[in-house]
């Protein structure tokens, strides 16, 4: 991956996966917020590439759907520890994979999933619905509050999402590089945020809790920062 850091993920594994020795690895568009894998969406394909293309390979990664990891690297072993270097996944920018999900499949059946979480400083901003959400305007306002370049601010993959029964929106974002926790908190109610200023009438998200019964997959992401993405 390029341009950021990830900490790791929380995951859900089905009983079927305990009987498998390998599975296909994908990155899907959404997080598994419910602690299960029903809401992960389709395979992450920001450039509208042809799924399952015969020209997709490790030597021709630009011919692949971004989220089709096994199409480039082969099946993921569930019994042996392996290292894969994936060079064309972005951690920052409009096509970030952060706040999306890693999915294991056996054929068309999902046997495991995990959320990709940021290791860089991150926050959520909850505000009343706006008619049209502008990613550029939001990032520009956050950059103005934090007195930094707009390029350091990435809106996370599942944003904006509905909040407070649909009356409000929540936008998650992360910062490349260091910023103090208190300075980041100042974004919420700063007047420079304008229509994106956090409102007391909206429910503030406290983050997604770990669900009972979830456990880590037998392989995990190593923390990376401005280095190639490593899968274990």
From TrEMBL:
InterPro entries: Cu-only_SOD, SOD-like_Cu/Zn_dom_sf. It comes from the Eukaryota. Coiled coil: none annotated. One of its GO terms (molecular function) is metal ion binding. GO terms for biological process: superoxide metabolic process. Signal peptide: none annotated. PANTHER family: AGAP001623-PA (PTHR20910), SUPEROXIDE DISMUTASE COPPER_ZINC BINDING DOMAIN-CONTAINING PROTEIN (PTHR20910:SF1). This is Uncharacterized protein. It comes from Takifugu bimaculatus.
């Amino acid at each position: 991956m390029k341009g950021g850091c990830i900490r790791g993920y929380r995951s859900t594994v089905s009983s079927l996966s305990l009987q498998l020795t390998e599975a296909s690895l994908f990155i899907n568009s959404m997080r598994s917020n419910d602690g299960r894998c029903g809401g992960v969406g389709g395979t992450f394909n920001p450039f509208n590439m042809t799924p399952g293309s015969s020209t997709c390979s490790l030597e021709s990664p630009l011919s692949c759907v971004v989220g089709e990891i096994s199409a480039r690297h082969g099946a993921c072993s569930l019994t042996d520890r392996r290292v894969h270097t994936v060079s064309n996944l972005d951690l920052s920018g409009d096509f970030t994979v952060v706040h999306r999900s890693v999915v294991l499949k056996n054929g068309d059946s999902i046997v495991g999933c995990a959320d990709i979480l940021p290791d860089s400083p991150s926050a959520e901003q909850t505000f009343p619905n706006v008619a049209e959400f502008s990613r550029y305007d939001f990032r520009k306002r956050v950059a103005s509050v934090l007195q930094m370049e707009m390029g350091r601010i990435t809106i996370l993959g599942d944003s904006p999402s509905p909040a407070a029964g649909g009356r409000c929106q929540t936008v998650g974002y992360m910062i490349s590089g260091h910023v103090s926790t208190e300075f980041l908190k100042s974004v919420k109610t700063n007047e420079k945020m304008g229509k994106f200023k956090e409102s007391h009438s909206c429910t503030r998200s406290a983050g997604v809790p770990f669900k009972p019964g979830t456990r880590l997959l037998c392989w995990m992401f190593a923390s990376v920062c401005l280095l190639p993405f490593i899968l274990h």
